[in-house]
Write a structure and sequence with these properties.
Length: 501
């Protein structure tokens, strides 16, 4: 049983931790030690973390001393944050995307995201497990599995409930209170899905709001990093620390004048009274009754709080058959660009090298095959194929002008409402538009998902908007969160018991 500060830290938000450090109740060093204690106690079963930053305690001590001498840098000063293992850090931690081929790879420089967090005073506590190559390895790979780290489990149902992918470790660790919050990445659903399945808040930002420099890629048209947290306020705090124009990522130039370095002013619970939210019923057709009931309950709450609900709304793109070409073609080009810059001590410097390495270490590396890697390797890697160019144009047009923007403009909406990562996450990902998921409830039953997991358990509702509409989405999500307070902490006694046995 937790006692003292360990008991206090469970479900504590960033503002509370910051206030406790300001008043001297706790230090950053103590926060780090508490989380390390919890990681040691629970993570041998949950399997959320690949490695701890060996310098975390020293960094926290330095930040404590800085607070005494110079004062606080802001809300993230001394706060322990976890990073997904595809985000470069220039320290004694590796960056591997979960692959044993990169298990000994050290980044030559911080990613832009890591540098921003360090500048804000965050303690980078460790790297989290993830679906290998962000899930873009095989159509059969289980969410949360990597050859380097094994399988991450959902703390709400060990080995039974779907953990979500590919930022599985970031989400499960945050849900289990193994850090204050975490950073995930998304190409299509990889922040929204695990956040939803672990009763968390996840923000998938607009493409261009957060730099991708130093992040192992899938596809530059859709890749982004974003916050995973237990509350909307914590996610907003983290998002503000990540935003800044980066000349090395030209997409961020589009965020000039449209981004904020502080999103906390948008934590407005009263905004729901003027919000207009669309209900895209077409995307609810595959939901089982338990999860459909959760959506209906969310709609009822929004109405009760004064939101205008437009039900249903139709999107011209609803019957579109997406071909997946954008990710297939961009993956080879983008990954080759990343791998080519790695140290000569690393055994792979191209996608072809990765495939060959995996074949040579098949017992460890190919539990679920690598069909998707091979499929991408068959492209030229030049992004000149007409099939790619046509698909990229079509994806943008169908997801934007004939998709999200069409619905928002036709009905003067602030957002569309989806369940978790069901279809809406992929639509927003193709458009490059933002989405935010927030805990809604718990399904008592569910359907079998890939990997044998059951989709019952925690469920989040997701609000999707147009480009750079994060302020409105945060307002809506915050209002919903404050009206419902659906998040509850997972029961970890089972994990501790299994560990002892």
């Amino acid at each position: 049983m937790e006692t003292g500060l360990e008991k206090w830290i469970i479900e504590a938000d960033i503002a509370s931790m910051q206030q406790a450090m300001t008043t001297g109740k706790v230090t950053s060093e103590q926060l780090v030690l508490i989380y390390l204690t919890r990681i040691e106690k629970y993570d041998s079963v949950l399997n959320t973390i690949l490695e701890i930053n060996p310098d975390a305690i020293d960094i926290a001590k330095d930040l404590d001393e800085e607070r005494k001498v110079k004062g606080s840098r802001g809300l993230l000063h001394g706060i322990p944050i976890l990073l997904k293992d595809n985000i470069d850090t220039h320290d004694r931690m590796h960056t591997s995307a979960g692959s044993i081929a990169l298990a000994e790879s050290f980044a030559a420089a911080d990613s832009f995201v890591a540098a921003q967090l360090r500048a804000a005073g965050a303690v980078l506590l460790g790297k989290t497990n993830m679906t290998e190559w962000a899930g873009y390895m095989s159509g059969d790979i289980w969410a949360g599995y990597s050859s380097r780290g094994g399988l991450t489990l959902n703390p709400y149902g060990l080995g039974e409930l779907f953990v979500g992918g590919s930022s599985s470790g970031s989400a499960a660790a945050t849900a289990a209170n193994l850090a204050a919050a975490a950073i995930g990445t998304e190409t299509s659903g990889s922040i929204i899905s695990p956040s939803s399945q672990n009763s968390l808040v996840g923000i998938k930002p607009t493409i261009g709001l957060v730099s991708r420099t130093g992040i192992i890629p899938i596809a530059h048209s859709q890749d982004t990093a974003g916050p995973i947290a237990r509350t909307v306020s914590d996610a907003a705090i983290l998002l503000g620390a990540l935003t800044k124009i980066d000349e090395r990522d030209v997409e961020t130039l589009a965020s000039k004048g449209r981004s904020f370095q502080d999103y906390t002013p948008f934590l407005d619970a009263n905004y729901l009274q003027q919000a207009r939210i669309g209900i895209p019923r077409f995307y609810y057709q595959q939901l089982d009754k338990a999860r459909l009931d959760i959506v209906e309950a969310a709609i009822a709450v929004l109405k009760q709080k004064g939101a205008t609900i437009v039900d249903p709304v139709e999107l011209p793109c609803e019957q579109t058959q997406w071909d997946g070409n954008v990710m297939r073609y961009e993956f080879k080009k983008d990954l080759n660009d990343y791998l080519s810059k790695l140290s000569g001590e690393v055994p792979v410097h191209s996608l072809a090298d990765v495939i060959a390495y995996n074949e040579a270490h098949a017992d460890q590396a190919l539990k679920y095959g690598q069909g998707t890697l091979i499929w991408s390797e068959e492209t030229s890697g030049t992004l000149t194929e007409q099939a790619y160019l046509d698909s990229k144009k079509r994806d943008k047009e169908m997801s934007r002008e004939l998709g999200i923007d069409h619905a928002l403009e036709e009905h003067q909406l602030d957002a569309l409402l989806f369940l978790g990562a069901e279809d809406g996450a992929d639509l927003a990902a193709k458009a490059g538009y933002p989405s935010i998921t927030v805990p809604e409830g718990y399904a008592a039953s569910g359907i079998i998902a890939p990997g044998g997991y059951i989709t019952k358990g925690p469920q989040g509702i997701t609000f999707v908007g147009t480009a750079f509409s994060e302020p409105a989405l945060i307002k809506i999500a915050y209002g919903f969160e404050q009206a419902t307070k659906h998040r509850i902490q997972p029961e970890l006694a089972t994990a501790a018991k299994i560990e002892v046995e």
